[in-house]
Amino acid sequence: xxxxxxxxxxxxxxxxTKVIVCCGSGGVGKTTSAAALALRAAERGRQTVVLTIDPAxxxxxxxxxxxxxxxxxxxxxxxxxxxxxxxAMMLDMRRTFDDMVLTHAGKERxxxxxxxxxxxxxxxxxxxxxxxxxxxxxxxxxxxxxWDLIVVDTPPSRSALDFxxxxxxxxxxxxxxxxxxLAAPARASGRGIRKLVGTGFTxxxxxxxxxxxxxxxxxxxxxxxxxxxxxxxFRERAEKTAKLLSSPGTAxxxxxxxxxxxxxxxxxxxxxxxxxxxxxxxxxxxxxHPVLAKKLTANKALAAAxxxxxxxxxAPSTSAMLRIHADRVEQANREQRLLARFTRAHPIxxxxxxxxMARDVHDVAGLRAIGDRLAGD
Length: 377
Known about the structure:
By secondary structure, this protein is α/β, with parallel strands linked by helices. It has helices at residues 8-13, 30-43, 58-62, 93-104, 107-115, 117-125, 129-144, 162-174, 177-187, 190-212, 214-245, 260-275, 298-311, 316-345, 364-375, and strands at residues 19-23, 47-52, 73-74, 85-90, 149-153, 250-256, 280-288, 351-355. Helix 7 crosses helix 8 (162-174) and helix 12 (260-275) runs parallel beside helix 14.
């Protein structure tokens, strides 16, 4: 069964496409794919911004920038005049959380939150925070209306599903019964607490104080009191961004490598998007190994290599090349079997295959070459 071909240029040229989300498990080339798509879109006339989550700063280097910050910077290079514009930024998770607090909590409560040790911990290490802040930043970029295309490189999570689950997980965690109980001492007088929950709560707080330490309990309680006033807005923005992600103007591109775990993860994500009626554009399979001399099978190449080694000891380089070709054919066949299995399970998903590059992508020329491969040029 042959899968449909992903029409990358058609997707980029469609003015109704406002957001492209590149998602997939870690290490499959999401950052490079997102950057290549954004560059190609800008060269084809779109006002484009790419949001990367990659802490290695490879995108900045590839775009000729020393660094990227938490706000978009325009990419301007010598002898490069795209028909549109390209802007780029790298998510600063803590800075985004701080900006959200400053915008929505009011000056006094914002100062309380930013100085709170409990907040300083969860703003950088709470489960789901990075994924939520990526969605928060996406919402901010979309709200400005400055760009007609936003390309998002999702966080390098263990699971691609973390990006979709993060707002609900973080919201539920902050709304959990435990944190609400921690907030109770700051919300009510001692008499009020005893009236509401009696001796049991006093025993609870003593137990928690013993485990966490009295100061952490105090910090958590103060955090929840200050955060409570903006919690509704926190959840409202998460729901608004979720609606943006499910709108017709958004396109999800699942990125994978031709490996069992990556394609299995891609399959889970495709099923999830389908189950929630979210707009899947297709699958990008990075670092494939196509074979040019298709008539020379692995068996024929190995047989020829063995014959040369027996008969002509002066031709070791030819024999080595034949063995390399045989390995390449075997690898290509393995990849083809894996992709065939994916296609059987998801027959209508469009696929773009990007052959492995001879060297790492570190400049605009490399990103353009990736874009050409994505588009099948």
